[in-house]
Amino acid sequence: MGYFSGETGRVRRSILDLAWPVIIANSLQVLAGTVDLIMVGRLGVADIDALGAGVNLVFFSTTVMIGVSAGTIALVARAFGAKNPREADHFLLQSLIAGVLVSIPVVVAGILFAPVIVAPFSPTPEVQELAASFVSTIFVSTPFLFIIFLSTAALRAAGDAKTPLILGVVENLINFAINYTLIFGNFGFPALGVHGAAIGTSIAYFTGAILYLGIFADHRRGIGIRWEKPFVNWVTIRRILRVGVPAAAEQFAFQIGLLIWIVMVVGFGQDAVAAHQIGLRIQSFVFMPGLGLSIASSALVGQNLGAQKPGSAELSAREATKLSILIMGVIAIFNFIFAPFVAYAFVGPGPAHDLSVTFIRIHATSIPAIGMFFTLSGSLRGAGDTKWPLYASLLGTYLIRLPLSAVLGYTLGLGVIGVWIALPVEYYLRSVIIVQRFNGGAWKATTV
Predict the structure, then answer these.
(1) 224: three-class secondary structure by DSSP
(2) CB 82 within 8 A of CB 88
(3) Are 332 and 110 in contact (CB under 8 A)?
């Protein structure tokens, strides 16, 4: 009871009330992709490589969406903190419009250039063909994915984390049912393999986007959409992007670095690529508690700054970070000990399994630092200070991870294990940078 007493206890309750639905909702989303990978894995290593390459390219395409959402969170949270729901509605609508507009080039690129885009991440022609089929299909659904992402960000910024959880469950059930049907050809449908996974996921995105728009039109969640003149407000869109561009640049730089990192792994063969994709999928699960606490901290920091309470904003950020390090530390221990059993969920005995175990254990050593970096970065973004997470990501990715991977993996001859060792080194450096920025306190005076 004492843990939740006083102001600190109230802050902890607020953090957990916001964080746990986010963690569950995001975990379910990652679970859907993981189940797809497990199902596709029954078809062969080439299918694992193809699906993994396609999913990584989808993540890369969402960097612009992340930039818009960073502006959405900061502005909507401050509007709610200032008790101005009409302004929050305005920021939501303009964010959705911005998201749809920036998704159009992504759709065009995915349809026209899929074989070229997937080529660097495909160790064989078979993988390239499968990955191109996945990308050309799923990129069509990008506008719907962007609507889901931005709607979720706005609701959480307004303090509603449960609605995205409910809709996330619906999306995942649809995704699983259609993918199970189309990947293997059940219930009389053709067996489409990786292409079937893309179709199922796309239909789930479309359904989720329609549900969110229906909820916002109904105005029962404290934030909604309404007709405005002008419908496209370029002044507001520029304001959203001004806050969000550093976050987009951070994710863009991170995803470019990730893709280069994957290309480095391709040189070590198909089993290494499969192990890397499995490890990245495990990493996606591991990210969830840190991401959930990051979003909770971001919303609370923004709301408190909007209410002119910088001390409460700092307290929220510090308590969220403590919880993140604790939870992520427990996950790190679990993953390190049970890595062989986790890997068996994706692939049977053999070189790919053994390499997967190695990657999972190396990655486990970085998990507490990931929790710290995610949560404090989210706190800074909630304040509108989006540049320092960018700086930390750039330094970590391009001065540490990629050069160190090249030196250890190729120059010193440690192979793919050397490439992976660079990961924990990078995240501990990122954490040092972000802690220094947060402790400096300049973020409290950021204007948005």
Answers:
(1) coil
(2) no
(3) no
Q: Which residue has the tokens 């934030």?
A: 223
Q: Quick check: bond before 351 cis, omega within 30?
A: no
For residue 152 the two structure tokens come to 């979720």
Tokens of 410: 């190729």
Whole-number Å distance between alpha carbons of 396 and 28: 29
Output DSSP code: residue 409. I
SS3 of residue 267 by DSSP: coil
In the DSSP assignment, the letter for residue 397 is I
Q: What pTM, to 2 d.p., does this model score?
A: 0.70
Rg from Cα positions in the chain: 21
What would the pLDDT profile of 387-400 be if each residue is shown by its tens digit? 888 889 889 999 99
36 contacts 51 by C-beta, under 8 angstroms: yes
> Which tens digit of pLDDT belongs to each residue from 233-243?
999 998 888 88
Q: Token pair of 61, please?
A: 């395409």
Q: Read off the tokens for 221.
A: 């969640």
For the segment 342-393, what is each residue's pLDDT rounded down to a tens digit? 888 887 788 889 999 999 999 999 999 999 999 999 899 888 888 888 889 8
